[in-house]
Amino acid sequence: DGGLRVATADLMLGAAGGVSGRAFDAQGRPAAGARVQIRNRDADDFFADARTLTDRDGRFAAVGLAPGRYAASLKKEAAGGVVMRMRASIDGEDAAEDALEAGEVAVTVEAGKTAEIELRAPALAALSGVVTEGGRPAPGVSVRLEEDQGFSLPMLGGGAAVTTDERGGFYFGERKPGNYRLYVEPDGAPRPIERTFALEGGRESREDVALPTGSIEGRVVDADGRALPGLTVTAELDDAPAGGGRAVRATFAAVALGGPADADDDASGPREIFFGDRRKSIVTDRDGRFTLRYLAPGAWKVKAAGAGVAPATKDARVEEGRATKGVELTSVRAGAAEVVVDRGGKDVDLVLLEFIGPAGETERSASTDARPARQGGLKPGTWKVRATSPDDASIDASATFEVKAGETAPVRLKL
User: Fold this and answer.
1) Is the pTM of this model over 0.85?
2) How deeply is 199 buried, as exposed, middle or buried, from its count of CB atoms within 10 A (0-12, 13-18, 19+)?
3) Residues 87-121 pLDDT 10s
4) What does the DSSP 8-state code read for residue 111?
5) Is the pLDDT of residue 287 over 90?
């Protein structure tokens, strides 16, 4: 009567299937109270998976599953662990969503039927080793062991960590067989020493690590030669991909942090999350000096950055057992930009911003939903910013603007 129109729709529910069976531990005994995960290999959807617990006889059942391919496995999660499902690309190639992981059993679910399977926990593995420095034991060094899935999420604190004892020794017990990454993180190292290997069930593997003995000593100053204390200094090998060995992009990898800040505040504006990146920051002292230790031989790129200054970089070559001294980086006072993307007089959010510096190289890239999007830490000079969107091809605009030290440049991109 009020003029409202009601739309109707018919929904047809398809017949579901299920998976049931028994689970056993590594000794062949029923696995009581174990968590069973049944992963949908056809759907890129975490909620399409099924999770259940075994009873005291090791029996389990999962019902209401859509027909298709699944992979079932026993899971042992640490307290407070995080369960995630994501689509990622590794070194530019999409990770196979339907590939079987270690310990999984393939099963096909048919409509109106229950598939019977048997799950057996593999014999557990262990890892031990010794960390040395110059042939002597290195006590008090942090060692972390993670399953190797092609990338890591260090911001979630994944994996198990121990500290080497007075003999430099470490031990990880009760690990499921599979591929692993070991990160050795001594104080003063700009990034961990990394090892990859496979652990076999039923045996203890050994992985000794000799810390590299190269180092870089230097200083960070401004354009007048005055020391710049409190800046963070990082380093990476010139031939190493960004992201701690493998470049990983995930569908939800971009977040934005924004808000009022001073014009020269490099801590403001949008930021990226890099998956797998385990770089550590060394801070310059009151004289602007820094030391980077435990570096492998090769060509390194040293970078200094901090609030109020533009990032500075310097190339340095490292040799085993020697200190590369006198590496001086010169940084200048930075400016900032506030970018608004405009379409028909209305602001557009959720765009990717790429900043191209005075030398023509890509200095910064960011993604944002902030309006305006703020980017600090820009070197004075002529900059170009480009806005794009992976989900909307019509979003593609660029503009050139001037950056001045201590000032914020307003930039409006019109679509």
Assistant:
1) no
2) buried
3) 444 444 544 456 777 678 999 999 999 999 999 98
4) T
5) yes
- On average, the pLDDT of the chain sits at 81
d(CA 212, CA 199) in angstroms, rounded, equals 24
DSSP notation for 306-331: ETTEEEEEEEEEE-TT-EEEEEEEE-
In sequence order, the β-bridge partners of residue 185 are: 142
* pLDDT over threshold 90, residue 327: yes
Q: Span 16-36, mean pLDDT? A: 91
The lowest-confidence range among 120-124, 314-318, 390-394 is 390-394
- Please give the structure tokens belonging to residue 271: 């930021």
Task: Tell me how far apart the alpha carbons of residues 45 and 195 are, in angstroms, rounded to a whole number.
Answer: 32
Distance from C-alpha of 302 to C-alpha of 96, rounded to nearest angstrom:
35
**Distances from the Cα of 380 to the Cαs of 325, 338, 375, in angstroms?**
29, 15, 13
* Per-residue buried b or exposed e for 342-379, using 16+ beta carbons within 10 Å of the residue's own CB: eeeeeebeebbbbbbbeeeeebbebbbebebbbbbbbb
Which pLDDT does position 237 carry in this prediction? 85
Q: Rounded CA gap, 364 and 356, in Å?
A: 7
The CA distance from 334 to 329, in Å, is 15
DSSP, residue by residue, 24-73: E-TTS-B-TT-EEEEEESS---GGG-EEEE--TTSEEEEEEEPSEEEEEE
Q: What percent of the chain has pLDDT over 90?
A: 47
- Strands of the sheet with 232-237, listed across from one edge: 282-283, 232-237, 298-306, 309-318
Closest CA to 204 of 170, 179, 173, 180: 173
